Design the sequence.
C-alpha cells in the first residue's frame, strides 16, 4: 500500500494535471498515510521477530519519503475541500440488547468514577460487587435464570472496558508550553512510538529582528508546562453523532430563513441582527444562503479560576479555561455541560504575560480548526440521522463563532485589548481618555472601526522594536490575538460586554460598597473617596486616534499626542483650584505644557479664541485660565450618608421580608466581614437611601437591570433600559462625583448586544460560572500540570456519560437514575435555567420559537408534568361553599408554579402563598396582591381561594413606587390587613409570586416578582422619620 501511494504521488509531479485531479488525489493519499500509520501502531508483539522488524524499518523509511513528498505537494496545492472527520466508531447503541438492571449498574459505577473521582481499582471493585449483589438477589428466587445470567454477564469487571464500550474517553494533544512567553509547541511522534518529541528550547522570536526567546522548555526530557488540547473537529464529530442534534441545528437555521430581516422585538438569539449580517466564506449570508449545508453558531468563553475553589480573599492561583456553547440548540440544552465543548485548560499558577499577548498562543490550536471549519467546512463520516444510510461523508457543515462572552479581566487579553482602566477603556465606540468616563451623550457616540483595530494588531505583531510596540499599543489600544485570523471576526460587535459581571458584580456591588459605603461602615480606618473634580462641563470629546495623523506619518493635522492632551486639558480645567496668585500660576504653568493644537481645540470648543493675530500659546492659556476662574473652585462633595444606621435597617429588612421559597436572600449580616464573599446572585441586592435624589439613583440602576433581563426585549424596553442607565449615571455624577467607573460606560453597550444577539440570557456569564464551579469540584491529585489534563478528561467523560443518559431511547428507570444524578451533582441548577422558567408580566413565555424549553401552564392549570401535594387534613367546609359542590373536590397544599410552587397560607413556606392576580371583569389591567388560603380543583381546573390585600388607609396616600412602574418596577404600598372575603381565582389569572414586607401595623409593601430581581421597600415620612429604600434580590 505504501508503494502504491508513492506511485500516486510521483504521478502528480507530471505536468498539465488538472487542479481538481490533484486535490482529489492528495485527499486520497492523505487518508492512505493515516491508515498506514494506524496499522503500524497496531503491530506490537511481532516486532521481536527479526524479519518483521526489518520490514517495519523499511516501511517506516518509505513512509517518511512519502510524507515528505506529500507535504511538498500540499504546500503547493492547499486543500480547499471539507475536512473529513471519521466518527464511524461512535454509532453503537450501548443500550441495545442490555437489560435495564445492567444499565443501572453502569450508571452507578460511572457516577463513582466520573463525578466522585473513584480510582480504577475502586470502580472495578464496585462493578464486581454489583455483580455479586445481583447474583444474591437472583438466588432469593431460585435463580439465576438465563436472562438474569446474561444481565450479570453484561456487567464488565473493569471500568476501562465500560468506558470504551460507551465511548466516554477522549484523546488530547499535549502541547509543550514555553514557561516564559507561553508559545505552544505541537508534539511530533517517531513512527511506532507513543512518546512525544519537543524542541528543548523556545525558538520563538518576540520581534522579527530579535533573538529567540531561548527559554528551556523541557526538564528531564518532559515539558515544564503543558497544554492538553482536545480537537474541536473530533468533538464536533461526536456532537453530531448524538440523536436529534442535527435536526435541532437545522430547525434553528430554518427559523431564521423564514424572516427576511431581523425582528424588531427580541425574544431569542435567532432574533438578533448579527446572524443576518454574518457573512459566509463566499460573501453571501452565512445562514440565509446555506443550500444543503449545515450551519452552526457557537459562543466562545474564556476565564481564569482557582481549581481549589474561591477563598474569602480571592484567588491563590489561576487556571484558565475556554469553552464553546452551541447557539443552535435550545437554551436549556445549550447550557447543559453535556453539550459544551472545552478545548483545554491553561496551566497555572499564573496567567500568561499580558504585555506579550501570551493568551493568544492558547487560542492558536482552536482558531486553526475554527478557521478550517468556516472556510472549508467539516464533513463527518455520518450523523445520527444518516449513519444507517450506508453513504458516508454525505453532508458538509460550516461553523462560526458568533460572539465571545468574558469578564473584563479575561476579555481584554484574549481579545488583544488594553485593560479597562487604561485610556482606551472602550473598543466598541470611539469614546476614550478617562475624562470621558461620565459621558452620557449616547446619541453622539460613534462606533469604533474594526479595520483600525485589525491594523493596530498586525502592526504590533510585526513591530521591530519594543518602543514601537509601546507606541502602537498607546495609539491603537490593541495587541495581537489569534482571533483576528477568523475572517469574519469583528470585536466591536462580537466581543460583548457580559451583563452579569458588569451589572451584578461591578455596578451594583461597588455602588453598595463604595458609593453607599455599606461595607463594614463602622470600620474607623476606612477613608472616604477623594473627588478630584470641581464641576462637570460638556466638553467636546478629544478626537479619536483613528481620526488624527496616522502613527509614523508626518503631521498633517492633529497628532495623537495633541488629541490625548485635549483630554488632559479637560481634566486639568475640571480640577479644584483657588482664585489667587498661586492657583493661577499653577494652572498657567500646567496648561503651558500642552501643545498649541490641543489648547486651540479646547478654546474653539469653549468659544474662547483670542482676538489677536498671530495667536500665541500664552494667549490661549490666558483665556482658559480666566474661564476656569469663573467656574466652581472647590471639589464636588458626595451626599452625606449615615451608613451605619442604613446598614442596620437593611439587615432588619433582610430578616423580615417574606419571599417565596425559591428566592434567595442575602445573609442577615450583609455588609459585614462575617458575611464572606457574596456571589453575583446575591449582589443583585441591597441598596439603601435616605435622600430622594439618591433613592432615584438607586432605583434607576434597579430598573435598568429589570429591563435588561426581560425575556422579550421590545424596542421600547431596550430604550427604557438605556434611559434608566443614563439617569443612574447622571445621578452618580450629582450625588457621588468620586464614583465613576469604566463599567458605567461599558454598561451602555449591553444595549448594542441586545440588538445584535437578543435577550441577555444568551450573552451573560451565569452558565459559564456554573461550568467553572463544576470544573472546580472535579477530584484531582492537585499536581500542577497533571490536574489540568485530569479535569479536561474527566469533564468530557462526564459529558459523554450524561449524553448517554439523555438519549431518547433511555429506559424509564435509567431516566430516573439520571434525575437523581442531576439533583445530586447540581445539573438542574436554578442559575442555569431559571430564566427559562419565568414569564414577563405580559405573559410572554420564554421559549424558543422552534421548540418548547419550559413546562407551560394551560388554562386548566399545571400540565401533565405538574407537581402537586394533596391536602392531608379534612377538607374545610368553606371550600365546599366556594366550589358550590360537596362531591369530587380535591384540595392541595401546594401546586407547581411557572417558578417554584404556589402554596396555602398554613404551609411551612408561607412566602409561597403571597401572589398577585388579575380579577375577572377588572378592566384596569392592574394586578391585585393577596394570599392563597385554599387550592382545589373545580370542574377539572386548579383554582385558588385568595384574600386580597386591603387598600391603604386614607391618611397614608403616598406611594413612592408609582413613578417607577413605567420602568418595569411594579411595587405598591398596601394595607397590612387582608380582606375577610375569599375570592375564587383560576390559576390562569395568577400573575406571579410577590415579595412582602410589613413596614408597621398599618402598611406593607408588595413587589410583583414576575421577571423582577429586586425588592425596594420604602417607608414614607408619614410612617417613619426617614425614607428608607431597600433592595433585595431574586436568585437566578
Sequence:
Amino acid at each position: 500500500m505504501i508503494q502504491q501511494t508513492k506511485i500516486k504521488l510521483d504521478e502528480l509531479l507530471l505536468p498539465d494535471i488538472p487542479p481538481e485531479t490533484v486535490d482529489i488525489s492528495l485527499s486520497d493519499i492523505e487518508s492512505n498515510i493515516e491508515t498506514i500509520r494506524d496499522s503500524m501502531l497496531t503491530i506490537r508483539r511481532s516486532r521481536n521477530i527479526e524479519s518483521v522488524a526489518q520490514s517495519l524499518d523499511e516501511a517506516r523509511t518509505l513512509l517518511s519519503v512519502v510524507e515528505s513528498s506529500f507535504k511538498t505537494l500540499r504546500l503547493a496545492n492547499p486543500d480547499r475541500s471539507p475536512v473529513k472527520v471519521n466518527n464511524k466508531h461512535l454509532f453503537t447503541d450501548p443500550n441495545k440488547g442490555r437489560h435495564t438492571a445492567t444499565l443501572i449498574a453502569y450508571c452507578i459505577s460511572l457516577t463513582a468514577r466520573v463525578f466522585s473521582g473513584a480510582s480504577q481499582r475502586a470502580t472495578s471493585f464496585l462493578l464486581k460487587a454489583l455483580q455479586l449483589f445481583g447474583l444474591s438477589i437472583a438466588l432469593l428466587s431460585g435463580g439465576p435464570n438465563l436472562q438474569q445470567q446474561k444481565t450479570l454477564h453484561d456487567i464488565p469487571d473493569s471500568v476501562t472496558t465500560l468506558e470504551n464500550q460507551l465511548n466516554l474517553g477522549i484523546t488530547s494533544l499535549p502541547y509543550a508550553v514555553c514557561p516564559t512567553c507561553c508559545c505552544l509547541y505541537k508534539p511530533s511522534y517517531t513512527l511506532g512510538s507513543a512518546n512525544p518529541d519537543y524542541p528543548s528550547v523556545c525558538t520563538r522570536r518576540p520581534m522579527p529582528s530579535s533573538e529567540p526567546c531561548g527559554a528551556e522548555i523541557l526538564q528531564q526530557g518532559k515539558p515544564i508546562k503543558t497544554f492538553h488540547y482536545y480537537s474541536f473537529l473530533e468533538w464536533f464529530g461526536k456532537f453530531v453523532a448524538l440523536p436529534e442534534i442535527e435536526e435541532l441545528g437545522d430547525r434553528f437555521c430554518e427559523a431564521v430563513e423564514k424572516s427576511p430581516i431581523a425582528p424588531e422585538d427580541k425574544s431569542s438569539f435567532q432574533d438578533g441582527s448579527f446572524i443576518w449580517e454574518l457573512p459566509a466564506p463566499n460573501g453571501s449570508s452565512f445562514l440565509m444562503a446555506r443550500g444543503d449545508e449545515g450551519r452552526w453558531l457557537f459562543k466562545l468563553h474564556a476565564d481564569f479560576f482557582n481549581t481549589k475553589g474561591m477563598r474569602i480573599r480571592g484567588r491563590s492561583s489561576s487556571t484558565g479555561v475556554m469553552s464553546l456553547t452551541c447557539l443552535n440548540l435550545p437554551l436549556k440544552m445549550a447550557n447543559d455541560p453535556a453539550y459544551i465543548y472545552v478545548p483545554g485548560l491553561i496551566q497555572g499558577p499564573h496567567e500568561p504575560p499580558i504585555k506579550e499577548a501570551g493568551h493568544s498562543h492558547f487560542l492558536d490550536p482552536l482558531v486553526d480548526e475554527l478557521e478550517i471549519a468556516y472556510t472549508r467546512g467539516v464533513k463527518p463520516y455520518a450523523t445520527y440521522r444518516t449513519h444507517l444510510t450506508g453513504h458516508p461523508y454525505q453532508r458538509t457543515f460550516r461553523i462560526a463563532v458568533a460572539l465571545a462572552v468574558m469578564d473584563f479581566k479575561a476579555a481584554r487579553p484574549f481579545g488583544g485589548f488594553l485593560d479597562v482602566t487604561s485610556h482606551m477603556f472602550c473598543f466598541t465606540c470611539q469614546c476614550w481618555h478617562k475624562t470621558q468616563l461620565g459621558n452620557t451623550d449616547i446619541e453622539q457616540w460613534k462606533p469604533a472601526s474594526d479595520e483600525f483595530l485589525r491594523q493596530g494588531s498586525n502592526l504590533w505583531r510585526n513591530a521591530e522594536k519594543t518602543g514601537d510596540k509601546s507606541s502602537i499599543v498607546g495609539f491603537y489600544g490593541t495587541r495581537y490575538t489569534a482571533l483576528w485570523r477568523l475572517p469574519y471576526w469583528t470585536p466591536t460587535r462580537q466581543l460583548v460586554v457580559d451583563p452579569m459581571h458588569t451589572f451584578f458584580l461591578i455596578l451594583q456591588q461597588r455602588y453598595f460598597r463604595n458609593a453607599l459605603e455599606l461595607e463594614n461602615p463602622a470600620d474607623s480606618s476606612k477613608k472616604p473617596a477623594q473627588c478630584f473634580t470641581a464641576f462637570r462641563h460638556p466638553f467636546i470629546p478629544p478626537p479619536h486616534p483613528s481620526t488624527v495623523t496616522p502613527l509614523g506619518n508626518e503631521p498633517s493635522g492633529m497628532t495623537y499626542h495633541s488629541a490625548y492632551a485635549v483630554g488632559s486639558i479637560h481634566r486639568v480645567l475640571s480640577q479644584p483650584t483657588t482664585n489667587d496668585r498661586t492657583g493661577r500660576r499653577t494652572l498657567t504653568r500646567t496648561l503651558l505644557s500642552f501643545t498649541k493644537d490641543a489648547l486651540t481645540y479646547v478654546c474653539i470648543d469653549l468659544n474662547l479664541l483670542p482676538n489677536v493675530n498671530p495667536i500665541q500659546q500664552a494667549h490661549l492659556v490666558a483665556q482658559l485660565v480666566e474661564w476656569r476662574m469663573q467656574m466652581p473652585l472647590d471639589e464636588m462633595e458626595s451626599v452625606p450618608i449615615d451608613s451605619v444606621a442604613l446598614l442596620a435597617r437593611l439587615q432588619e429588612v433582610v430578616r423580615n421580608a417574606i419571599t417565596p421559597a425559591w428566592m434567595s436572600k442575602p445573609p442577615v449580616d450583609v455588609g459585614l466581614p462575617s458575611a464572606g464573599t457574596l456571589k453575583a446572585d446575591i449582589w443583585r441586592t441591597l441598596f439603601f437611601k435616605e435622600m430622594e435624589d439618591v433613592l432615584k439613583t438607586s432605583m434607576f440602576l434597579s430598573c435598568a437591570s429589570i429591563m435588561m433581563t426581560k425575556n422579550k426585549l421590545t424596542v421600547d424596553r431596550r430604550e427604557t433600559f438605556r434611559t434608566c442607565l443614563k439617569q443612574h449615571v447622571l445621578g452618580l455624577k450629582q450625588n457621588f462625583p468620586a464614583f465613576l467607573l469604566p463599567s458605567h460606560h461599558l454598561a451602555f453597550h449591553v444595549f448594542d448586544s441586545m440588538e445584535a444577539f437578543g435577550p441577555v440570557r444568551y450573552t451573560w456569564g451565569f452558565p459559564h460560572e456554573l461550568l467553572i464551579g463544576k470544573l472546580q469540584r472535579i477530584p484531582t491529585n492537585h499536581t500542577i500540570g497533571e490536574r489540568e489534563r485530569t479535569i479536561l478528561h474527566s469533564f468530557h467523560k462526564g459529558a459523554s456519560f450524561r449524553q448517554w443518559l439523555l438519549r431518547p431511547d433511555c429506559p424509564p428507570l435509567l431516566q430516573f437514575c439520571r434525575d437523581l444524578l442531576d439533583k445530586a451533582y447540581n445539573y438542574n441548577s436554578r442559575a442555569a435555567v431559571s430564566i427559562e422558567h419565568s414569564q414577563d408580566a405580559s405573559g410572554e413565555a420564554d421559549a424558543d420559537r422552534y421548540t418548547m424549553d419550559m413546562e407551560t401552564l394551560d388554562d386548566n392549570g399545571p400540565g401533565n408534568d405538574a407537581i402537586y401535594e394533596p391536602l392531608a387534613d379534612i377538607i374545610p367546609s368553606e371550600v365546599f361553599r366556594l366550589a358550590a359542590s360537596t362531591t369530587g373536590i380535591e384540595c392541595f397544599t401546594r401546586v407547581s408554579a411557572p417558578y417554584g410552587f404556589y402554596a396555602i397560607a398554613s404551609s411551612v413556606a408561607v412566602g409561597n402563598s403571597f401572589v398577585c392576580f388579575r380579577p375577572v371583569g377588572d378592566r384596569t389591567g392592574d394586578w391585585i396582591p393577596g394570599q392563597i388560603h385554599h387550592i382545589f380543583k373545580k370542574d377539572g381546573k386548579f383554582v385558588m381561594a385568595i384574600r386580597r390585600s386591603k387598600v391603604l388607609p386614607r391618611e397614608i396616600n403616598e406611594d413612592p413606587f408609582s413613578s417607577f412602574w413605567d420602568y418595569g418596577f411594579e411595587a405598591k404600598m398596601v394595607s397590612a390587613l387582608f380582606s375577610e372575603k375569599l375570592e375564587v381565582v383560576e390559576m390562569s389569572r395568577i400573575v406571579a409570586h410577590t415579595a412582602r414586607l410589613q413596614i408597621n401595623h398599618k402598611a406593607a409593601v408588595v413587589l410583583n416578582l414576575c421577571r423582577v430581581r429586586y425588592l425596594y421597600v420604602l417607608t414614607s415620612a408619614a410612617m417613619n422619620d426617614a425614607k428608607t429604600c431597600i433592595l433585595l434580590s431574586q436568585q437566578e
Notes: The first helix runs from residue 2 to 12. The radius of gyration is 33 Å. Confidence is low (pLDDT under 50) at residues 680-691, 829-864, 1012-1036. Residues 868-1033 form a domain with the SH3 type barrels. fold (CATH 2.30.30).
